[in-house]
């Protein structure tokens, strides 16, 4: 990808040695994630970082790369989880078929919400996505016979899965982590392909200057809708992973607080960077873990830290780090 | 179905809508002037309700709570503008939004620490307990009072904006802040006051809503979504739009509740989606600014 953000000159990536390695952002990210369960204090935390990392990565496509600040990403995270649970529990569909079905249905939901919300611009977009996600929340609350309402969705435990004739005990946290990591790796490869494609250049052009992108002949409205759907699809995969991991889907997953948490994670980690979402998810979850050890009111600290980030560190941890190391924008 | 029942439900909807109007008005005025959408608006609504409750029990009178809470919380809002939001003018339009979102986390958790996580009942003032015979049916006195009070506040606000010198400065500042500065108006002070006014209106909405719904730390997030729906339908930045859309949403909620209760929470979002598909800038919005 040769698009230059904010007019900065970008060196062409070197094709050998360290330069080559730095260009393999998907492989590098997978390598880090493979080590994660052994770096973090608990396996449960590592699984959560993986799941939220995928959700936030999908959201980053919309917010970081296209510049659309949505406050409704929880709708797709939740949709992925609910559709997976309903497909397995209610219709007895095996998990490997339930996941693609759930992603497909969630993408349709993203299309419906996207058609309404991408007609608006700027601050309007944030408000409309928030309101429409609340609509999804209330629908799930009311349709209790399908979703379990306030009690959440239960009764679809996946305890064993067979991979190429191999029986894997899915209740073992390490097995579970690496199975879910395969989903994450797929999502990362997909996202990297989107960003490297001409379409990836178009969405960044829209972020930098919407009018100019339109003047260049790109269909801005259609691109926004497509990126909204792609972003929803990737985040919904995170939802599928959560459903497989927890064996229940709490109603809270659709709440506006979850959308807010996704926004916080992407900003903590660093919007517009490939690995930033995972750094953001990890920082947020570790922060929550550590602070809630000595006070139930961890949200007040998380809120304060977030405010400080907005004021003084808008590029987030990973983005600031990459800037400090002088890593070119191409290699993010 | 009985006609008088429908009229009573209509009045209920207007009372519900009146609170929405006041809350959404605060949001829309701040946006119209400062170009900032305050994501902490719902949290400040909630804090207003708590402040009203606390002041009422401190002074022993609901009326002091109703008067003092909006003033105090409005002053707190001015502090927020002065300390935090002022730093973000000139940066991305998303930044104040993100900052106020983080702020809402702090405010909600702060209230949980001070008042606990459980809901607290907000007693109706003794003078307004009971119902009034309107000839065709009985209507709660308190709700009638809410409608009248909101009408008075709207009238005062309208007169101030349209007929006074201060109002002239505010209207001109919304149109072109740069020219106002050239003319020697300290626009920073106007913005400070407007932000305080917007937050004060949120707090007033909170106190008024107190006796009608339960007061709890989470009430703000629902109100924020409602206020967003109202401002999007009316057109962001439009005062007339906030009034019309607020009443429209309130009446639709209570009318739908009469016929299909399970749809009541959903109807306003559906209304918003329809409006957006037909008029993306909202009923009274100006095209180009936001849509």
Automatic annotation (TrEMBL), chain A:
Principal localisation: membrane
Cell compartment(s), UniProt: Cell membrane
InterPro entries linked to this entry: ABC_transp_permease, LivM-like
Keywords: Cell membrane, Membrane, Transmembrane, Transmembrane helix
CDD domains for the chain: TM_PBP1_LivM_like (cd06581)
Transmembrane segments: 45-62, 68-88, 95-116, 122-141, 177-195, 225-249, 261-286, 298-322
Topology relative to the membrane: Multi-pass membrane protein
Top-level taxon: Bacteria
Listed PANTHER family: ABC TRANSPORTER ATP-BINDING PROTEIN (PTHR30482:SF17), HIGH-AFFINITY BRANCHED-CHAIN AMINO ACID TRANSPORT SYSTEM PERMEASE (PTHR30482)
Protein name per UniProt: Branched-chain amino acid ABC transporter permease
Species in which this protein is naturally found: Bradyrhizobium diversitatis
Species classification: Bacteria, Pseudomonadati, Pseudomonadota, Alphaproteobacteria, Hyphomicrobiales
From TrEMBL, chain B:
Chief place of localization: membrane
CDD domains per the UniProt record, alphabetical: TM_PBP1_LivH_like (cd06582)
InterPro entries per record: ABC_transp_permease, BCAA_transport_permease
Keyword list, A-Z: Amino-acid transport, Cell membrane, Membrane, Transmembrane, Transmembrane helix, Transport
Pfam families, per the entry: BPD_transp_2
Signal peptide (from-to): none
Compartment(s) where it occurs, according to its Swiss-Prot or TrEMBL record: Cell membrane
Transmembrane segments: 6-29, 36-56, 62-85, 97-115, 142-161, 190-210, 222-249, 256-278
PANTHER family named among the record's database cross-references: ABC TRANSPORTER ATP-BINDING PROTEIN (PTHR11795:SF442), BRANCHED-CHAIN AMINO ACID TRANSPORT SYSTEM PERMEASE PROTEIN LIVH (PTHR11795)
Record-stated family: Belongs to the binding-protein-dependent transport system permease family. LivHM subfamily.
Protein name in the entry: Branched-chain amino acid ABC transporter permease
Species this chain originates from: Bradyrhizobium diversitatis
């Amino acid at each position: 990808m040769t698009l230059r953000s904010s007019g900065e000159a970008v060196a062409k990536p070197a094709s050998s040695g360290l330069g080559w390695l730095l260009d393999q952002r998907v492989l590098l990210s997978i390598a880090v994630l493979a080590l994660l369960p052994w770096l973090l204090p608990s396996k449960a935390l590592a699984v959560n970082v993986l799941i939220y990392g995928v959700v936030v990565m999908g959201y980053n496509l919309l917010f970081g790369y296209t510049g659309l600040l949505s406050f409704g990403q929880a709708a797709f995270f939740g949709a992925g989880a609910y559709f997976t649970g309903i497909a397995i529990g209610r219709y007895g569909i095996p998990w490997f078929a339930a996941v693609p079905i759930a992603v497909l249905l969630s993408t349709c939901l993203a299309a419906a919400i996207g058609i309404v919300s991408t007609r608006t611009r700027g601050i309007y977009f944030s408000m409309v996505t928030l309101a429409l996600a609340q609509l999804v929340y209330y629908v799930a609350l009311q349709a209790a016979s399908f979703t379990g309402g306030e009690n959440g969705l239960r009764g679809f435990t996946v305890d064993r899965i067979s991979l190429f004739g191999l029986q894997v005990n899915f209740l073992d946290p390490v097995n579970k982590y690496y199975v879910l990591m395969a989903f994450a790796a797929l999502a990362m490869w997909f996202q990297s392909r989107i960003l490297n494609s001409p379409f990836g250049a178009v969405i960044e052009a829209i972020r930098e200057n919407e009018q100019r992108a339109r003047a260049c002949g790109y269909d801005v409205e259609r691109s926004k809708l497509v990126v909204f759907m792609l972003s929803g699809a990737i985040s919904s995969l995170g939802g599928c992973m959560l459903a497989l991991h927890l064996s229940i889907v709490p109603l809270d997953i659709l709440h506006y607080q979850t959308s807010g948490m996704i926004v916080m994670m992407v900003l903590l980690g660093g919007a517009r960077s490939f690995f930033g979402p995972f750094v953001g998810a990890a920082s947020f979850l570790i922060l929550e873990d550590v602070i809630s050890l000595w006070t139930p009111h961890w949200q007040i600290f998380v809120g304060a830290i977030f405010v400080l980030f907005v004021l003084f560190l808008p590029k987030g941890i990973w983005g600031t780090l990459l800037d400090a190391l002088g890593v070119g924008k191409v290699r993010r | 179905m009985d006609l008088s029942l429908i009229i009573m439900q209509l009045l209920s909807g207007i009372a519900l809508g009146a609170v929405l109007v006041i809350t959404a008005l605060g949001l829309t005025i701040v946006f119209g002037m400062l170009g900032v959408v305050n994501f902490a608006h719902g949290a400040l609504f909630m804090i207003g309700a708590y402040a009203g409750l606390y002041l009422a029990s401190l002074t022993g009178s609901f009326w002091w709570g109703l008067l003092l809470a909006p003033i105090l919380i409005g002053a707190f809002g001015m502090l927020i503008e002065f300390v935090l939001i002022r730093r973000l003018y000139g940066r991305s339009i998303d930044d104040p939004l993100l900052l106020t979102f983080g702020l809402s986390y702090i405010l909600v958790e702060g209230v949980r620490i001070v008042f606990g996580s459980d809901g607290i009942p907000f007693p109706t003032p003794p003078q307004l307990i009971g119902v009034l015979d309107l000839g065709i049916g009985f209507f709660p006195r308190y709700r009638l009072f809410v409608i009248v009070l909101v009408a008075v506040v709207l009238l005062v606000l309208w007169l101030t904006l349209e007929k006074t010198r201060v109002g002239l400065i505010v209207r001109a500042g919304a149109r072109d802040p740069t020219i106002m500065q050239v003319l020697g108006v300290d626009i920073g002070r106007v913005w400070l006051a407007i932000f305080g006014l917007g937050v004060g209106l949120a707090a007033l909405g909170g106190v008024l809503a107190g006796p009608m719904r339960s007061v709890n730390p989470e009430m703000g997030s629902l109100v924020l979504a409602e206020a967003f729906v109202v401002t999007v339908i009316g057109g962001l930045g439009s005062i007339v739009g906030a009034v019309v859309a607020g009443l429209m949403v309130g009446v639709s909620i209570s009318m739908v509740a009469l016929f299909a209760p399970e749809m009541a929470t959903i109807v306003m979002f559906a209304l918003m989606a329809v409006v957006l598909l037909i008029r993306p800038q909202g009923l009274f919005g100006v095209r180009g600014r936001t849509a």
